Amino acid sequence: MYIESLGTRLRIERFKRNMTQGQVCQELKMKVSTLSQIENDKGVHFDSTIRKLLKFYGINA
After folding, report:
1. Could you tell me the residue ranges of all domains in the chain?
2. For residue 45, what are the contacts with CB-CB under 8 A and spacing of at least 6?
3. Is residue 41 within 8 Å of residue 6, measured between CB atoms?
4. Confidence of residue 45 (pLDDT cuts 50, 70, 90)
5. I need a labelling partner for 27 at 20 to 30 A (CA). Which of 14, 17, 42, 58 fits?
6. What are the HTH cro/C1-type domain coordinates in residue numbering (predicted)?
7. Could you give the CA distance from residue 1 to residue 39 in angstroms, rounded to a whole number?
8. What Cα–Cα distance (Å) separates residue 33 from each residue in 3, 24, 57, 61?
9. How far apart are the C-alpha atoms of 3 and 30, rounded to whole Å?
10. Are 33 and 58 in contact (CB under 8 A)?
């Protein structure tokens, strides 16, 4: 059984909406580098940023 990481799940949600990282970051007023780190599971510890992304994509955590 494969369990998707949070970063993978967020990337898939962005792809479903046909959005670039830049578009998401513009909407949420965040840096592209931050979103890239999150989507690539690079150990980012930005709880408020992750909550903002989950809310934006409508994902219940």
Report:
1. 6-57
2. none
3. yes
4. low
5. 42
6. 10-42
7. 21
8. 25, 12, 19, 23
9. 27
10. no
Q: Which residues, other chains included, contact 28 with Cβ-Cβ below 8 Å and sequence gap of 6+? A: 52, 53, 56
Backbone angles phi, psi at 47, to 5 degrees: -55, -45
Position with higher pLDDT, 44 vs 39: 39
Confidence of residue 48 (pLDDT cuts 50, 70, 90): confident
44 — pLDDT class (breaks 50, 70, 90): low
Residue 26 scores a pLDDT above 80: yes
Nearest-angstrom CA–CA distance, 16 and 4: 16
